[in-house]
């Protein structure tokens, strides 16, 4: 068997997220599986690393699948890019060892959130960032961000749809930087619950706007109460940036 | 009279260009004039520096208009950005001296063209760049670019619709640089004829692909024959970047 690894980039704007759903629903996994199944001549299932939400983008989603066929990697890449819609691109195809598994082997995931923080909208990035008109106080946001670091039960920052056995996740780092008119928030961790990054970012924005005190975060986490978290940042500003194996 | 200057950014993708046309046509000038006219309570006409083509973008288009009213610049900026569509932003409003004229006083205009030069499409930039899959030969393109520099009659690189008195323009510089997966071509000059930048870029792409010899450019210019120029780069990759006064 050949274990193919795909590196995938997408504008998630018109999709219901990564994960394949019912036949009427447009998902990134579904689109890629359809093209691969056409290419190989039978149904193919792929394993994606991160189940990005509806509307969320990726610079480098990772997926793998095993087949008996020997298809040259360049041929597969070209076929996929010819038949996939233009908002999904396969930027690399490789053959990995038999034990490589896109979901189980990942060690760290990094998500990037882009906030356009000027008093006018950015015509080129309006679908790829969240617009916050009032100036955000970065130093307050940094104080708040520190409290998310480390291993915590993140129930409070999850969606009720999260059906994971454990709600404990380890956040390795949160970096906030000003890049031109953008405020970029980069969150790395061993994994994230459904809506977790968007709830963290939404809460950091509340702190940056002075609507919430930076010191409240620890209490919110420890409460394990979803009701304590009220803000969910737009999906259009969020990107799965990189995955470490 | 107060002479207001606007700095305007836009995604030209869904417009018929800068210049106001008949009432049914959507143009950037038209949209801005409509909002200003609503604000001031009578028809307002603005003077734009560059008449960008349909589908062409701008980082910093300049326009001006004179009114007797004293409207604070911040108030005007906020009003415009509240009522303009999100693909048009007014990034600055100022009051200039009486003699300032957006069209007649400009000394240099710089256009930027973005080519995405990878073998897969860029999901985030597909409306904001032209995709060329085959690798472009930059050194050949640079040899070709040099021949455009200086003062020439650019009839061959214009559209038959150009109704200017003089077809002579002075190109100050053409810079080609590789930035990540993009090839960026930056063209500065005292002014450009209708379609001129897109025809220059289209021809440079032909040279970069080996479809045309770099040495042909001088002959094409001197021919003054529109038939000698066959390639017009997509409008979506072109940006009016800056204007010097």
TrEMBL record, chains A, B:
Catalytic site positions: 53
Keywords: Isomerase, tRNA processing
Pseudouridine synthase I TruA alpha/beta domain mapped to chain residues: 8-105, 144-245
Reactions this protein catalyses: uridine(38/39/40) in tRNA = pseudouridine(38/39/40) in tRNA
Keyword match tRNA processing: yes
Record-listed E.C. numbers: 5.4.99.12
Keyword hit for tRNA processing: yes
InterPro entries recorded: PsdUridine_synth_cat_dom_sf, PsdUridine_synth_TruA, PsdUridine_synth_TruA_a/b_dom, PsdUridine_synth_TruA_C, TruA/RsuA/RluB/E/F_N
GO function terms (MF aspect): RNA binding; tRNA pseudouridine(38-40) synthase activity
Biological process terms in GO annotation: tRNA pseudouridine synthesis
Pfam families according to UniProt: PseudoU_synth_1
Enzyme class: isomerase
Residues reported to bind substrate: 111
Assembly description: Homodimer.
HAMAP family: TruA
Entry similarity comment: Belongs to the tRNA pseudouridine synthase TruA family.
Known role: Formation of pseudouridine at positions 38, 39 and 40 in the anticodon stem and loop of transfer RNAs.
Protein name stated in the entry: tRNA pseudouridine synthase A
């Amino acid at each position: 068997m050949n274990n193919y690894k795909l590196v995938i980039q997408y504008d998630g704007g018109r999709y219901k997220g990564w994960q394949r759903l019912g036949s009427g629903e447009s998902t990134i996994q579904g689109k890629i599986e359809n093209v691969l199944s056409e290419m190989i001549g039978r149904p193919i299932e792929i394993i994606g690393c991160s189940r990005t939400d509806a509307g969320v983008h990726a610079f480098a989603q990772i997926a793998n699948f095993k087949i008996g066929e020997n298809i040259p990697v360049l041929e597969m890449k070209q076929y996929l890019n010819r038949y996939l819609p233009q908002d999904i691109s396969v930027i690399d195809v490789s053959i990995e060892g038999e034990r490589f598994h896109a979901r189980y082997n990942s060690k760290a995931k990094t998500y990037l959130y882009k906030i356009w923080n000027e008093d006018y909208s950015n015509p080129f990035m309006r679908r790829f960032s969240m617009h916050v008109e009032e100036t955000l106080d970065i130093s307050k946001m940094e104080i708040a961000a520190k409290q998310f670091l480390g291993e915590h039960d993140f129930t409070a920052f999850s969606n009720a749809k999260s059906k994971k056995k454990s709600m404990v996740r380890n956040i390795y780092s949160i970096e906030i930087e000003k890049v031109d008119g953008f405020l970029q928030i980069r969150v790395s961790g061993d994994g994230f619950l459904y809506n977790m990054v968007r709830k963290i970012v939404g809460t950091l924005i509340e702190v940056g706007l002075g609507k919430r005190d930076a010191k409240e975060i620890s209490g919110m986490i420890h409460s394990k109460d979803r009701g304590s978290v009220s803000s969910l940042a737009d999906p259009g500003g969020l990107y799965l940036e990189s995955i470490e194996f």
